[in-house]
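user: Please supply your own:

assistant:
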Amino acid sequence: IDVALFGIPIEVENKVVNAMVLYQDETELNEAREAVSMLRRENDERSNLEQVISQAKQEWEATFDAVNDLVLVTDTEQKIIRCNRSVIQHFNTTYKDILGQTVQQVFYLPEELIDGSPPELLGEIFLQSLNGWYDITQSEVERGDDIRGTIYVARNISERRKAEMDIQRQRNYF
């Protein structure tokens, strides 16, 4: 019986693994070579796909962080699971400290709570914690018929409110 000894270098996570296999004839040897070649192609495709996903993730994070408005993403229990860099900068905190809190816990100071509950958190609101006026909107995150959470966007409108108050004072004066 003719037996062929064939070693095929295979890369797994950038490490070379040498597979030694015994084959009885040339047909089995060629089939094994084809299988190994297919595994290499699949591994290369997977690596390329992982690279594309990683790059897309980095681009999305850069885009999310480029928004000047405060953007918070919550789960179905209203716990913050993501926020942009603007939130971290405005509250002078870290992602670790913000994640897991509710939007109300982040936006309101303890003395603003009424019977332990925060006031409504939509529309134009003065937030003492940020010492300014913010227009807060929310949108539900849906996947099919299933609600996955909420996105809150808080836009600083302090300058606009100040201008409106100045115009109102001028009207009242004249």
